[in-house]
Amino acid sequence: MDRTGGKLKRGVAVAVIALVAAAGCGGGGSDDSSDGSGGGGGGGDDTLEVPGEFDTIQAAVDAATPGDLVLVSPGVYREAVSVDTDEIVIRGLDRDETILDGEFERENGIRVVGADGVAVENLTARNYTFNGFFWTGVDGFRGSYLSAIRNGDYGVYAFESVNGVFEHSYASGSPDAGVYVGACYPCNVVIDDVVSEWNGLGYSGTNAGGDLYIVNSVFRDNRVGVVPNVGTYEPCFPQREVTIVGNQVYRNNNGENDVIDFAQLALGNGILLAGALDNVVERNRVWEHDITGIATVPLPEDDPQEVASDNLTECEGDAIPDGVVDVAEAELPDTLLWPAQRNRIVDNVVDTSGLADLAVADLGLSPTPDGGNCLSGNTAGSTAPLDLQAKAPCGGAPAAAGWDDGALDVGALIARDKPPPVPYEDVELPDPGNQPEMPDAATAPARPQTGPPEPPDLGAITVPPRS
Amino acid sequence: MSRSVVAATLAVVALAVAVGAVAVAGGEDRGSAEGGRAGPVDEPNRRFFADGAQFAVECGFSHAARVDPIVWPGLTGRSHRHDFFGATAVSAHSTGADLVGSPTTCRVGADTAAYWAPSLVRDGEPVTPGGMTAYYRVAPGVEPTEVVAYPLGLAAIAGDATGAAPQPSGVVGFGCGRGGPVAATIPACDAGSPLQLRVTFPDCWDGEHLDSPDHRAHLAYSASDGCGGDHAVSLPRLTLVIHYPVTGDPAGLSLASGEPQTAHADFLNGWDERALRREVESCLRRSVVCTIPDSARAAT
Fold first, then answer.
1. Least CB-packed of A124, A407, B39, B110 within 10 Å?
2. Residues of B in contact with A2 (CB under 8 A)
3. Strand pairing partners for B58?
4. Is A201 an interface residue toward B (CB < 8 Å)?
5. Once rounded to an integer, what is the mean pLDDT over residues B165-185?
């Protein structure tokens, strides 16, 4: 095949792609591994103390068997912990004083690789070059009472992982997202009571959704707040079906932190549904954004990859929906434009946005100018286009005209000057203060995360107050 | 479409995150040094994530030198010019053991291996590469649980520096940006998708020799049924993706070793042994994606 240049006919690769082993979007593929059954006693339900019995967290983790608790005393642990044993729990006795420190040399504070059900609790991870806490390829995960501060990629991060919980946690100072869930569908993940600030993105989730809830959390002082998004560079696209309820999202205009390349295009937006489908944004309080409070926008993906027409993975994904591009027939464009469609934005309270409290931009990508998105019951001032809730009501037909009135000038927004990234090592981060401690950390039994989490009681959530 | 055009037309968009791409050349080839087995083949490219398990290391450009510690040990100046990535202290005398614990340009500090490839040259002037990403994966047909870490000091060469004939795309090829195929010739790349050289190393070992007189016979490429015969030990499949800040007309581009079809790369394993074993056992043997390199998120 003589194929040169940037425009490449890629559809022909589909058949071959389909033959290749799947990436495994979630399922993990971890068997019941318990390599290292030394000091733990081998029976499960043991407590392995660091530094009492073991000099390092890694040594204790390597000795643990499923059901065991690795209990870590206050101290600074200069190590990077890798976990490959199912259903162990790693817990600090004092969240603020039990600190994993990467010293800008080590990659991940705690990395869980293909080990199902592992829970990490009541710890701080700081100064890692990659991530604070990272689960990949697992079925069952939980991060509770974690603080991830000043890490080079993500704070708290799950990839190709399902059936998980991030709760009561804090993330600051990551150039990518403070909290990230990526490449899962359906995810069965609950993010509850997290605070994410001074990151590139407060929350980011590429190709993640399906029973994925973000509730009762705070996203502030990031470059951009909450951003479900999409790309062919990870499995499980498109992005769809995240439920975002009862969060405080404010002041995401921060130009004094680190940020990955493209995220800073989004500087100054609260909840941004970027090339995202079928998400629900409800009863959030959103304020003080330079650009928009809540918006749906297309996402341009440069240099997209070959695309499989058949499902490759357990995530029921890897398909570009109709209306984006006909992959089987067409050449993939150099830049793929993902529309944001069928998002439901209701009963939020949004104010003090620089351009628009609520915005829908479709750029003519969808059959109707609303992109199938709808907005009702929101308390909001300015919208783009004007009278947006009347033009795109939930349960009603979209207006036929008027979509140019006061529409976002996205080109101008992109073109405006934005502060450059500040290297994450150098950012002056806010003092996280004393973060809430896990109750009864010394005595609570080990509780691995097996099976899907309990969905949050959405009906009980009201619009949170302004803080 | 250039990034500036994207910027001008689109949106408030947060493109985030994670990664991507690089359709990596395949590994169905057999080293021709292996008597009686199939030779290297062309293999259609496939999507990056279709291969599943990997760990990856991004390494900056270290230096260029007319040095080749595998082919011309001890003989500085004897080799054509190479671009080095990884261990910065590599010399014509270096062994794998020398490199352990030494400074590295890699984002993973334990990766003190030496990686090198002939310098890209435009009209006689070397082009400074932007960096290199090393993908460690498992070839199709190889049983993941059988993969073992490279022994310390293993020397490996991929590609044919003599360039007697166009090489299989499963071994070496040039491409543009994150996605797309690779070709034996240097393509004209768009501004948003600059040039890459992708080189895939053999992934079966004889289990005994760290090197061999021709620097190849101790290794072979896996086949659809994995490793076997005289090379029965399964290793990670290492693919280097070298990024160049090169777009547009490829006229005048060649390699320090000669025409584009002389593309090749060398690997001298100087990884911290424990760290490498951990990556192989945790990520590859368990079939998990452990790293999503930044360089795959955007064409750089």
1. B39
2. 183
3. B133
4. yes
5. 83
∠ Cα A456 A462 A465 (to 5°) = 125
Token output for B130: 């932007």
pLDDT at A53 over 80: yes
A1 touches chain B (CB under 8 A): yes
Please name the residue of chain A whose CA is at the shortest distance from the CA of residue B187.
A4
Asked if the peptide bond before residue A186 counts as cis, ω within 30 degrees of 0, the response is yes
What DSSP string runs through A159-224? ES-EEEEEEEEEEE--SSEEEEEESBSS--EEEEEEEEESSSEEEEEETB-SSEEEES-EEESSSE
Interior/surface letters A375-401, b for 16+ CB within 10 angstroms, e for the rest: beebebebbbbeebbebbbeeeebbee
Please give the backbone phi and psi of residue B145, each rounded to the nearest 5 degrees, phi first.
-70, -10
State the Cα–Cα distance between residues A375 and A232, nearest whole angstrom: 28
Interchain pair B50, A17: CB under 8 A: yes
Contact assessment for residue A227 and residue A204, using Cβ atoms and an 8 Å cutoff:
yes
**What six digits make up the tokens of A177?**
């997202």
Measure in Å the smallest separation between the Cα of B213 and chain A Cα atoms: 35
Q: Which tens digits make up the pLDDT trace of A368-377?
A: 999 999 999 9
Domain ranges of chain B: 3-296
A5 in contact with B, Cβ within 8 Å:
yes
Amino acid identity at B298: A
Q: Give just the sign of the alpha carbon dihedral B258, B184, B141, B31.
A: negative
Chain B residues with CB inside 8 Å of A161's CB? Answer: none
Question: How crowded is residue B162: how many other Cβ atoms within 10 Å of its Cβ?
Answer: 11
| Mean pLDDT of all residues belonging to chain B | 82
Query: Of A373, A299, A296, whose CA–CA distance to A342 is shortest?
Result: A373
Å between A10 CA and nearest CA of chain B: 7
Asked if the bond preceding A452 is cis, omega within 30° of 0, the reply is no
Q: State the smallest CA–CA distance between residue A459 and chain B in angstroms.
A: 30
| Chain A partners within 8 Å of B23 (Cβ) | 13, 305-306
Q: Which of B1, B9, B47, B243 to mutate to test the interface with A (most CBs of A within 10 A)?
A: B47
Q: Are B90 and B220 in contact (CB under 8 A)?
A: no
Q: What is the pLDDT of residue A458?
A: 98
A-chain residue closest to B20, CA distance: A233
Nearest residue in chain A measured CA to CA from B224: A20
The secondary structure of A383-395 as a DSSP string is EESTTHHHHS-TT
- In terms of average pLDDT, the best of A31-35, B166-170, B246-250 is B246-250
Query: In degrees, to the nearest 5, what angle opens at C-alpha A166 toward C-alphas B20 and A88?
Result: 95
Closest to A60 measured CA to CA, from A108, A120, A117, A101: A120
Could you check whether the bond before residue A238 is cis, i.e. omega within 30 degrees of 0? yes
Query: Which whole number is the average pLDDT over A141-161?
Result: 97
- Partners of residue A353 on adjacent β-strands: A289
Which residues on adjacent β-strands are paired with residue A208? A184
pLDDT at B26 over 80: no
Higher pLDDT, B294 or A270: A270
Q: What does the pLDDT look like over A190-223, one tens digit per residue?
A: 999 999 999 999 999 999 999 999 999 999 999 9
User: Rounded to whole angstroms, how far apart are CA atoms B178 and A336?
Assistant: 14
Q: Does any CB of chain B come closer than 8 Å to the CB of residue A139?
A: no
Largest Cα–Cα distance of chain A, in whole Å? Answer: 71
CA atoms of A244 and A214, how far apart (whole Å):
5
ipTM of model over 0.95: no
Handedness of CA B294, B267, B272, B204 (dihedral sign): positive
Nearest alpha carbon to residue A98 among A61, A135, A70, A129: A70
Q: Is the pTM of this model over 0.90?
A: no
Task: Name the amino acid, one letter, at A176.
Answer: D
Given pLDDT bands bounded at 50, 70 and 90, which one contains residue A59? very high
Q: Determine the average pLDDT of the residues in A48-66.
A: 97
